[in-house]
Every structure is written in C-alpha cells, then in structure tokens.
Amino acid sequence: MTMTSPAAQTPIARKISTNAVIRTVLANRSISRADIAKLTGLSKQTISEVVRDLEDEGWLKPAGRTDGRPGRNAVIYEINGRAGLAVSIDLGGTKIAAAICDLLGNVVAETKVPTDRRGGMHLVNQFSDIIVELASAAGTTADKLRLVVLGTPGVLDPVTGHINVAPNIPGVDAMDLRQVFSSRMGLPVIVENDVNLAAQGERWRGHGVEVDNFAFVALGTGVGMGIIANGALLRGARGAAGEIAYLPIGGDAFDPGGFTLGTLESAVGSVAMLRRYIGFGGRNASTVADLFAAFNAGESSAVAAIEETARLAAVAIAAVGATLDPELVITGGSIGARPELVNAIRRFLPRCTPYPPRIEISRFGNRAALMGGMGIAVERMHDDLFGVKLREA
Amino acid sequence: MTMTSPAAQTPIARKISTNAVIRTVLANRSISRADIAKLTGLSKQTISEVVRDLEDEGWLKPAGRTDGRPGRNAVIYEINGRAGLAVSIDLGGTKIAAAICDLLGNVVAETKVPTDRRGGMHLVNQFSDIIVELASAAGTTADKLRLVVLGTPGVLDPVTGHINVAPNIPGVDAMDLRQVFSSRMGLPVIVENDVNLAAQGERWRGHGVEVDNFAFVALGTGVGMGIIANGALLRGARGAAGEIAYLPIGGDAFDPGGFTLGTLESAVGSVAMLRRYIGFGGRNASTVADLFAAFNAGESSAVAAIEETARLAAVAIAAVGATLDPELVITGGSIGARPELVNAIRRFLPRCTPYPPRIEISRFGNRAALMGGMGIAVERMHDDLFGVKLREA
DNA sequence: CCCATTTGTCAAGGACATAGACAAATCACC
DNA sequence: GGTGATTTGTCTATGTCCTTGACAAATGGG
C-alpha cells in the first residue's frame, strides 16, 4: 500500500478518469463499480481498472455487497478514510481545542487544554505535544499526518504571513508562527483567522451548507466576521475582510479612539455591554452570564443594556447586508450565541434595513472554528490527493 | 469554415489540448506553433494537428512569419477576432450607449443615442434597431452576433430575473426584459446591473487589472457599488450586493424614510449635495456643474457642501473597507468622477479608518459600464467556444 | 557557400478509452 | 428446485490521441 498521490505521473486521461471515480465515490459515500460507470459515463472496463489501481494504493476499500435486487450482486466500494489524517487546532486566549480527522471528515481524536500563557515558542511546544498525544489516541503517529490547520485570533497578513494578534496571546505577532510550527512538525501548516474558520465550519457541515452567501458574526469580548461569498471564503486584500470591529457604527467615526479598539467593538463588545449596564444603574452583574441572568429576571438596566447592544448589532448587520447581501447571518461567540440577544436583533433588523437576512445561532457553538479547520483540512487533502492538475508548472 | 465550437464532440484529451492551444494564443496575442509546443509542454506533432484543425474551422489565422533569428522562420498564428462578435448595451436614463466587439475585445462599431422615454417595448425596439445598425457598420448582420450584454440601473433578482429599476426608466420592472429581448433578437442576452458592469470594465482593462479585491463606487443622482472579490463579481443572495444606498450612514438607521430612498443615498446623492448647499446659504448653483464651479471659485457654501458630502462618502468607504478590505476603491458617476470631491475623500479617509484603501477615479468615465459589458461578452464567448466541459450533464 | 539552428512533418509505438461478447451470480416465479 | 431475466464484471478487439525520434526544409552568420 504505497501512499503516494494516486495516478502521480499517469497521463492526463487516466488522471481525469481517476478523479471522476474518486469524486463519485466521495459524493455517494459507498457505491458499486457498475453505478460509478453509469454516473461518470465511462465504460465498465475503465472503471474496473481505475478502481483496482485505487484499491491497490489504499485509497478505496470494498465495503460489502448489494443484495435484494435481481441480478448478480455488486461489490460496494468506499473511500478508505484512514488513507489521510489531518489536525485542526483552535488557539484561544484561555483554551486550545484540537482534533484529528480523517479523509472523510470523521473525528478520530479530540482534546481541549488550557493555553500556555507564556506564549511564543511555548505554544509551539504545546501544539507539538498535543499532536503527538492525539496521534497516539488515534492509533497512529505524528509523521503519518498530512496537514495541520491552525486557527488564531487576529488578522493574518497574506503577504508577510505574520499575525497581528489581539492582546490575548503574547509573543505570537513577533514570529512567523506558520513557518516555525511547520518546520518543527515537518508538516504543512495553514494558519487562518478563527472567525474565518468558524464561517468555514458552518459552510462545511452547519447552517451554511448550500448557502453561497452568508456571514458568521462573532460577538464576544471582541467582534469579528467571517464571510462566505460566492461559496468561498473572502479574505480581502490584507486579510482583514470581515474585521467589523472598525465599522464606523455606534460612535463617532472620526474619534481617534476608534483606531485602537475599533468603533463598533467599543460599542457592542461584552465590555461595552457591561459598562452600559453599570451606566444604566445596574449593580448586580459583573460578568456576561450575570447580565443575562439579570435580563431573564426582568431587571430593567439589564434589559436596556442588552436591547441597546442588540440595536447596534442590528445596525452593523444592516451595514454588512447593504454591502454583501447575504442570505443568512450566523451568530456566535460568548454573547452572539445567546438567544436573548439574537431574538432582540431579529426584532430590530427589519426596522433598519429593507432586506433583512435570516439570522441563525451557530450550530457548533465554540467548536465552530475547530470544525472549520477540519473542513479546510479535508478539502485540502482531497485537492492534494485527488485533484486534477492539468499542468505541473 | 464551419462556425461551431471547436472540438465539439472530440474526445476529452483533444479537447484539453485544443483548449490549451487557444489559451496560449490568447495569452500571447500571436505566436508560432513551436512556441506553443514549448509553453504547453505538448509535442510539436500534436500542436500542428490542433492548429490545423483550428485554422480549418476559422478560429485561428496565420499572421506573418518570424525573422531575424537563426534557424528556419516560423509561421505566426493569431486568434481570428472576427470569428465571434458580441454586443454591449448600457441603458441609461437619458442615453443608450452600445458597441459591438470581437473575440479579442476590439471595438468594431460604437454608437450613442437618446433613450426612448416611453420605456417598455419601445426600448426593446430601440435596442433592436441599434443592433442592426451597428452590425451593418461592422460589415456584418445581426444574425452573426453571438451574445448581447445589457447593463441597466436597478437590482436584478437572480431568481425571477426581474429588474427593480429606479424611477428613471418606465415600464421595465413589469416585464421580463431579458426574456423578451432575447427572443426578439434570437440571441442569448445577459442583463446586469450597470455599476456591476462598470466594476467589470475596470477589472477587464482599467485600474482593476490584476487587482483581485476592489470596489467601484458610483456617486451621482443615486449611489451604488460594484464589488470584485477574489477576482470575481460579487452579486449576493438577491443580486443586491453593493447596494450601499441603504448603508445606515449619514442619517438615522431607524428612520422609515431611509427605506424608500436609502439612508446613505439621501445623504450623499447629488440632490442631497445641492440641498445642503442651499441650506448653507448658497444661491449660485442649481446643477452639480454649477456647484463645482462655485467650489473652484472658493464660495464657502459650496466648499462646505462638497466637504460634508466627501466626509460622509469617506465614512461609507470606511464601512465598506471594514467589511471587504479592498485594495482599491474606484470612483465614478457624475460627482464621483470629480477630482475635487475625490481629493476631499482622500483627505478624510485616513482619519476614519486605520487601513484606508487606495482611491482612483474611473479610467473610462461614463464608458465604464459599456466596457464591462464587452469584458463579460468576450469572457463568455471564450468560455462558450473554447471552454473545456469535462461532462455534458 | 557551409554550418549551426530552428521549424515542421513523417512514421512507429504506447497508453487509454470504448464496444461488444461472454461468463458468473442472483432474484422471481412456477 | 429449476428456469429465465437481470445485473455484474472480465476479456478481446479496435480506434484515438499523444510522444519520440528521425529527417527534410528554411534561414542567419561567418
């Protein structure tokens, strides 16, 4: 079972046939050769040859036979998920979540540990330890993995590869994290903004499946947005697309204070919401959880603070809507996942935009970014392994 | 010279080779067979066969020979532009601009006429007359054309195909203009928002060449935006992406008046700018041209009116920037093309956003939408004629 | 005028696809 | 339990397309 990419130097026609077979199997989970032939339009003979090669190389495996219908029973084939494993890591200010998934997107090992607050190289060491441990739990070793996807807060510069991380995590903006981590592991590493990953996660297996235009809005300590437009992630020229912290809403756009924190972020972040509660005379809440408890108890300052936050969030969503025209906005984050807030946003929205998008709360909660990393990893593995490259170039 | 798509039912391998040859010739304007072989990596033999077929079918034509270098001279081939002609029409409230271009994007005939104000079917008749006339001027007939691209104001619903046109043009929102026009001409018709077309025009041969993320902002009687993201036009879920008239900036987002005209449009449109001038005590201008003349004469009310308009436009661009992170914003339209306004915007922008995009004035002025239509037409012809379809489906 | 260089064609051989015949396996029905 | 219809999968023959290498044709430089 040689684990090189299938049809590595085969002529172009066989590459295309092989790709068509793999894609057909992927799309149908499990399928017989006869059905592959019908779906691809290729001859039975060609399919048999291609499937034989793919099975010899370990990419496909037989998985039972048909029965119950007239005629000879067919052998069913499916993708051998174990033929490719990848890692997804979600680096947060307090926790690191990580998982290994296979070629089919099945999670084969998962863990969550506190973030090493010393930052920098300590994080790289921590990642490495996590991967070794996960690999062991998955019954394999780290050198069998194909790819790591790492989600971090902050803006990634697509030119330099550097991350401008918010204050949460020390010593990461000074280094080329991707490069260091990649050579440490001897694996390709993809680094992506965590909110972008959350959007990808919803696109992959959440509310965004089959929705080509939507946005994932994260409301928490900070605010951020991941955009799926025309079915693909939108990063912008400097990787800052969706950085709605700087949206000129909820304050004076020309106030220089908006530059450090962001105009919108100073208006709808959890800190602003708590400050607003105090300003309204509230005295019973010092955390977001407290505040929502007070809201549900009907305390007027809490109601006012949350309503005002929802009102501003609705205006922000209206602004995004006027630009992107999404079909759907998915909310997440510590306050964006609260139905109380989201219901208020749903009430305000039709009053400030003529075309209000649908609003849904993230299907994956705080696992959205982790899911997105797996989605990207699986997609990338499929491309690398089964993609048709017309020319090497 | 049979004018069907080349390699219509040839097996897949020859299709790919044919496509590679055409694309290489397109990318190099004119080129010898030997060089095509080097660039594509295909053998001289294959290239000779493919080029012979393409020449027999009229897609390629010889265009001289090399000389001056050692060795036998090569025959140079180029695309036969005349093998495909298409029409671009820009429907405006007062004028209709139209042009015929060939496969290479060369303009072979162009005209401009006043819009028939009766609207509806009268417009379809007018389009038809224009096309016949242009075809004649181009030395061909209307039935030899392959495609029409029509730019209109208003939002196109991608589901119903209907156009919600601003008040300018009567009797168009009630009909399926695309369908009626298409069957009248017996040609495929693509209808697209005019600002989207302007963005495509800049992308094709203007400031947006090689810029994968930019926006075209039209400032005039109305305001609108066309978005190129990840190198492609962004339409959104309902075709309303870029409809920044409704951006909640420059007024109260919850004012119901913002629904009919749009919050931003009531703040930065030319009507608002003139009203603002009057409000500041100005009495010497009743048109946009007058107002800019007064500005250049140093009249304080005119300066204030234009500065305030620029200030709001800068905030709007900042909002778009926080969402899309474009590398570049191109301005156009009757006031967006004025350097006086644009310079003022350039001054305000760095004060309301930490990452101000570059600002340029449209390269094509009021021909931008016409150019965009040609760009789309050429691209579409290339796809239809030379595109590789792996499966008919 | 000769030669190095480049272009383009010819002929042979290999990889891959298709089509059709045929053997094998299975269900339905008597 | 046997028979026939149906479906699967392999085998064989044939054709298309691509590549390779030989070779003729054309051209500039010395």
UniProtKB/TrEMBL annotation, chains A, B:
Keywords, comma-separated and alphabetical: Kinase, Transferase
Family annotation (InterPro entries): ArsR-like_HTH, ATPase_NBD, HTH_MarR-typ, ROK, WH-like_DNA-bd_sf, WH_DNA-bd_sf
SUPFAM superfamilies attached to this UniProt entry: Actin-like ATPase domain, Winged helix' DNA-binding domain
Domain of life: Bacteria
Statement: the UniProt record of this protein carries the keyword Kinase: yes
One Gene Ontology term of the molecular function aspect: kinase activity
UniProt xrefs under Pfam families: MarR_2, ROK
HTH marR-type domain segment(s): 25-69
Family, similarity comment: Belongs to the ROK (NagC/XylR) family.
Protein name: Putative NBD/HSP70 family sugar kinase
